[in-house]
């Protein structure tokens, strides 16, 4: 800990956000009028709502794709009776596929979701920076 003058600890300073309705400091420069602020917040609100809708749509599509692919994977295992007759280390192959086969599917869909969500956010950032 650094010490202040005279070997005493430095005095504490409270840092707070500006209070609502308090006058803006002159160092920040001129502030836009109420009409310009309202227009800017309206546009930003549209951008944010658009981002939220696109992220929700992406999440629902990925969840539905995962559910459909998992059901198809399970159906393929159920409709292949030879997998129940084959054993690896005393465990039926169908059980191994059910236990470990879904993870690559989940990782793939998760990776695709992250990539698409990042692309949506990059598009949002470019829109916000342009306006």
What does this protein look like?
The chain has 131 residues and is mainly alpha-helical. The chain has helices at 34-78, 82-85, 93-100, 102-130; strands at residues 87-88, 91-92. Helix 1 runs antiparallel to helix 4. The longest helix has 45 residues, at 34-78. The two termini are 45 Å apart. The relative contact order is 0.09. The mean pLDDT is 82. It comes from Agromyces sp. G08B096. This is DUF485 domain-containing protein. Keywords: Membrane, Transmembrane, Transmembrane helix. Residues 1-35 are annotated as: Disordered.
Which sequence of SSEs, written as H and E, runs from N to C? Answer: HHEEHH
Tally the beta strands: 2
Structural class: mainly alpha
Strand line-up of the largest beta sheet? 1-2
End-to-end CA span: 45 Å
**Count of helix runs:** 4
Q: Please state the CA-atom Rg, rounded to the nearest Å.
A: 28 Å
How confident overall, as mean pLDDT?
A: 82
Low-pLDDT sequence parts: none
Strand content: under 5%
Helical fraction equals: 55-70%
Region (Disordered): 1-35
Protein name: DUF485 domain-containing protein
Biased composition (Low complexity): 16-35
Transmembrane segments: 58-83, 95-114
Report a brief summary of the structure.
The chain has about 130 residues and is mainly alpha-helical. It has helices at about 35-80, 80-85, 95-100, 100-130; strands spanning about 85-90, 90.
Using brief descriptors, characterize the structure shown:
single chain; mainly alpha; elongated; two-stranded antiparallel sheet; 2 strands; 4 helices
